Target: DUF1918 domain-containing protein
Amino acid sequence: MHAIKGDRLVQHGRVVGQQDKVAEIVEVMGDKGSPPYRVRFEDGHEAVCSPGPDAEIRPRETRR
Model:
């Protein structure tokens, strides 16, 4: 897994009906873009996480 600051971390729900959790990566703490990441969730909560196989990185949207 590789990410840069500003990318989105999406943790998929594990059971039917559970929504995905989306967070912005605010700091990459590992080497060369690897976990762990400091993330900020949509409600403002921040956490340090090492995403598992149920997560994906979505590149930040580029603005023109």
In short: The chain has one domain: 8-58. The CA atoms of residues 11 and 55 lie 4 Å apart. The first strand starts at residue 8 and ends at 11. The chain has a mean pLDDT of 91.
